[in-house]
Design goal:
Number of strands: 7
Radius of gyration: 22 Å
CATH superfamily of the largest domain: Cobalamin-binding domain
Helix content: 55-70%
Number of domains: 3
CATH class of the largest domain: Alpha Beta
Largest sheet: 5 strands, parallel
Structural class: alpha/beta
Length: 294
């Protein structure tokens, strides 16, 4: 059974801590528990109820009405809301709730409905990518466990692989070549996979090496493939203290090509970027870049 502080509940549900306390006192929406040292916490059932309440109130239902609903009534109302596939923020909230409940069917239904409504590209740019940022924040603050992240990452990864496989390959393409890989020790692959999809969709030949690639292997693939562009994503590895030296190493190792680079450990960090490294501050920057060289 999970134990969540009021701050973690705030991150997960979007209900501000002071609002939550007021709703508890005025409407009795949940009854937080206490540890042996009198520290308040919420369990899994509390969290699910609060996330359902948050979804409904965000969509305009009055808290005085929602607070009177049983858990079953809340669940039914939320499912009706999801069936309407309201705005993108509500869709992100619905994905988060499905993740917490480890509900594959619900996660799949919400995501597939969004793809039908918005299209694959827009869904991943404006829903899945912001959702994964929220997941990363929750994981870093221990509001969710690694199992939750692995669960939804695998489901999203499956969607991306199917989409990549559906893109045609032109063996005689004269477009610029791309080499994609993650540095050794880096396993967060979803942004790289989506980049693979975007690049392949534009008709560029792509060599995809995947996760945790030793530098020697990347160099050998680079020697044989001779790409004009490389792309990597650095979320956790190398660590911050090694990052500047690693950027210089990338620049020197792949000096004859331009390298596109993004990820938590490089974006907004103020690193010195050699001339042949190009920082992507957000995934939309890759879309613009591809359009500029297409």
């Amino acid at each position: 059974m999970g134990k969540y502080s009021i701050k973690e509940v705030e991150h997960l549900s979007g209900i501000k801590a002071h609002t939550l306390r007021m709703w508890e006192q005025r409407y009795g929406i949940v009854q937080p528990k206490r540890t042996g040292t009198n520290i308040r916490y919420y369990d899994d059932a509390d969290l699910r109820r609060l996330m359902n309440i948050a979804l409904l109130t965000k969509h305009g239902m009055r808290i005085s009405k929602v607070a009177k609903m049983s858990d079953e009534e809340l669940q039914k109302a939320v499912l009706q809301l999801e069936a309407q596939n309201s705005g993108q923020e509500e869709t992100i909230d619905a994905l988060a709730l499905a993740m917490l409940e480890l509900d594959e069917y619900r996660f799949e239904k919400v995501l597939s409905t969004a793809i039908v409504k918005y299209g694959f590209d827009k869904t991943f740019l404006e829903i899945v990518h912001p959702f994964m940022k929220r997941v990363g924040l929750l994981w870093q603050t221990s509001a969710i466990c690694p199992a939750h992240e692995h669960f939804i990452s695998c489901l999203i990864r499956q969607k991306l692989i199917v989409a990549i496989d559906a893109q045609a390959i032109n063996p005689r393409s004269d477009k610029a070549r791309f080499l994609l890989f993650l540095p050794e020790g880096e396993w967060h692959e979803l942004t790289l996979l989506f980049s693979h999809y975007l690049i392949k969709k534009q008709g560029f030949p792509v060599l995809y090496l995947g996760q945790s690639v030793p530098m020697n292997d990347a160099v050998e693939a680079y020697r044989q493939w001779q790409p004009e562009y490389l792309l990597t994503v650095i979320t956790t590895h190398p660590p911050i203290k090694e990052m500047q030296a690693f950027l210089y190493e990338l620049s020197e190792t792949f000096s004859k090509s331009k390298m596109l680079i993004t990820g938590h450990n490089v974006v907004g960090q103020g690193w010195d970027m050699p001339d042949n490294l190009h920082l992507l501050n957000k995934i939309e920057d890759l879309v613009y870049f591809l359009e500029s060289i297409a």
